[in-house]
């Protein structure tokens, strides 16, 4: 039985994992936690909401740092609290559903507050900065009607020791068997992943592409042999359509509406026309490369840089016939550091992927980048700024990383001029942003 954590006079004993605290919960912070304090100690609390009073069990105790805790009893509830849509992701459960107890409107406010806090604290933006004024997190079509469920076109599971499909307990290697995964798209839910037995320890990936049947991979191999790739289509509101081939286990935006949402937002933010030069960094299978190549036309150029050989192979096929799209394979920071102003000629064949001595054109009118959660970092941001773009369109899946890179750019004469945020991961803390930076003085 867990005991009440020591709060009395000195010498009553140190707190330990399993102790229960009564906490007044403060603001949401990055990672799906809320901030609380106990006798001056910072406690990051999951499964709580700002303004609540809860009893929370300690799950991690750092003697010279913060503590972690899970709320296990709500003494004073927030009006945004609802019954969890996925109890398996509750206290002691799997990761990936840390906002399942928050109303859908409350989730949008939560994510807005986290973005704003990161950009103020880490990005050093003033509270009244124009990019933050009136910021709201946009919900994508269909989510409200579905209650934020059945929106993921890709899920990954792992089999436990008895061959049952499940996921890892939060911050643990232990696999918890599941009976369902309510965030999975309907075609995946219908594939009976939880009703069969798998090889213990196997990784199970299920992909529901926009064009075709569900593909199931077990340890990277197709369950029934045959195809390893899927077809994706992006339909924009103006009627344009883009087609892609993507490796089944490769990266593609997870939400059913994410690719369309982000392509539309990036094209609007980039505002490029015929003849323009664009860098597309961390370009993946070409989600943005293909439409950007259409925007710049045959007299323009899009230099796409990607480090994953599998994604470059997909991109090669996706840009087939678009001679203005030039692909460069290799770590983005290394490619930008090593090209030394040398790049392949405009119109180079898409399969002539750049080697270490080659790279994008030395100047870009617009740079689009979609880095991983760690962000672009100082070296990449410096190379981007050195290219002299009129605007930088930064697609971010991590508010803290975005804030660090924005701070770096602002120190070097660029300003954040617009920011949009999209809830592409309902019931989780994740949020996607599209930010635009421009030089403070042009010319």
From TrEMBL:
Active site per the UniProt annotation: 397
Short name of one Pfam family: tRNA_U5-meth_tr
Keywords: Methyltransferase, S-adenosyl-L-methionine, Transferase
InterPro entries: MeTrfase_TrmA_CS, NA-bd_OB-fold, SAM-dependent_MTases_sf, TRAM_dom, U5_MeTrfase_fam
Origin superkingdom: Bacteria
PROSITE patterns: SAM_MT_RNA_M5U, TRAM, TRMA_2
GO BP annotation list: rRNA base methylation
EC number in record: 2.1.1.-
Domain TRAM: 14-73
GO molecular function: rRNA (uridine-C5-)-methyltransferase activity
Binding site for S-adenosyl-L-methionine: 253, 282, 306, 370
Family membership noted in the UniProt record: Belongs to the class I-like SAM-binding methyltransferase superfamily. RNA M5U methyltransferase family.
Name of the featured protein: Putative RNA methyltransferase/cg2084
